[in-house]
Write a structure and sequence with these properties.
This protein is about 70% helix and about 5% strand. By secondary structure, it is mainly alpha-helical. The protein has a two-stranded antiparallel sheet. The two termini are about 25 Å apart.
């Protein structure tokens, strides 16, 4: 990869990592479900008028929109609103790679090899360490632990959406993501009115200020439109094995920015959880593919790190 392309990949990872801090700030201005609905509304409009018609069947757009937009982001935003820290959320959410591998085995028959199984075990150990750290940090407070559990549930839904996206095989990731963004808006608004209440939603909209508007623009246009557009552009020009490792920087930027801007402490136990999770996700994402024999008759294997969908 050219230096400029390496810088772009690192920038996208930074944008996605800092996104968790921005979400935390946004939750001070909006109820979580309304916030998520506004995120997808602004991501879809006006971009949907410029990306062209959908390039995959509507069943995949609707399926991914419900799994990723409604379930994953609804659970993530709600979990963070209940007390799951931004930095920890950016880390724990990476367990989606384990669930993606599991669902790919169940739905697509992709049998995990020994390396992938080892990675899944290491990543799950990281989740266990993170759970211990979160429990000790909050003294077993039910709200924080519930938020932690909802972030894990969000990772499960992300794994489902990854498998659906793999089945859809969209030729244009940006076009696909913009159309997917049109699906969650009404369901999330309906859930917000039902669970968060019309008055709370109205109060949030009436109190909209420049900070609230900037937060929505960041999570919608910067992380979604720019992030997915740049990531898809890189994947069209380089092998996934060259681009995907940069996604492992997301929790690094997430935890660092949360410590810098939100004052979140990073305990030694959390660093241990981070090492286990990132290492486990890296192993889970590696596929060893056989190459043809070379002239000397030696069979070589090439590690390929498969790109995971980001949001």
């Amino acid at each position: 990869m050219r230096p400029a392309h390496i810088a772009l990949a690192a920038l996208v990872a930074a944008v996605w990592g800092v996104n968790f801090v921005v979400i935390s700030i946004g939750l001070d201005h909006f109820p979580p479900l309304l916030f998520s609905a506004l995120r997808f509304l602004v991501a879809a409009l006006p971009a949907v008028f410029f990306v062209g018609r959908p390039k995959v069947a509507w069943k995949w757009i609707v399926g991914v929109g419900l799994a990723l937009g409604v379930a994953k982001f609804g659970l993530l935003f709600t979990g963070m609103s209940l007390g799951a820290p931004a930095g920890l959320s950016s880390l724990v959410l990476q367990i989606q790679a384990v669930f993606t591998a599991l669902f790919a085995f169940l739905a697509l028959g992709e049998r995990p090899g020994r390396t992938k199984l080892l990675g899944m075990g290491v990543a799950l150990a990281g989740i266990a360490v993170a759970a211990v750290d979160e429990t000790s940090a909050h003294g077993g407070a039910s709200g924080a632990l519930t938020g932690f559990a909802l972030v894990i549930a969000a990772a499960v839904c992300w794994g489902v959406s990854n498998v659906l996206t793999r089945k859809a095989a969209p030729p244009d990731p940006l076009n696909f993501m913009v159309w997917v963004s049109t699906v969650p808006v009404l369901p999330l608004l309906g859930l917000s009115l039902l669970l968060e209440g019309p008055q709370r939603d109205l109060d949030a909209l009436r109190g909209l200020d420049w900070t609230g508007a900037g937060v929505i623009v960041y999570v919608a246009w910067i992380t979604t439109v720019f992030g997915f557009g740049a990531w898809g552009w890189l994947l069209r020009r380089h092998p996934a094995s060259s681009v995907a490792p940069f996604s492992l920087l997301v929790p690094v930027f997430g935890m660092s920015s949360a410590a810098l801007f939100l004052g979140e402490s990073v305990s030694p136990l959390r660093w241990c959880a981070a090492a286990l999770l990132v290492g486990g996700v890296a192993l889970t994402s590696v596929n060893f593919r056989r190459r043809e024999q070379d002239a000397a008759g030696t069979v070589r294997s090439e590690p390929v790190l498969v790109a995971n969908e980001r949001a």
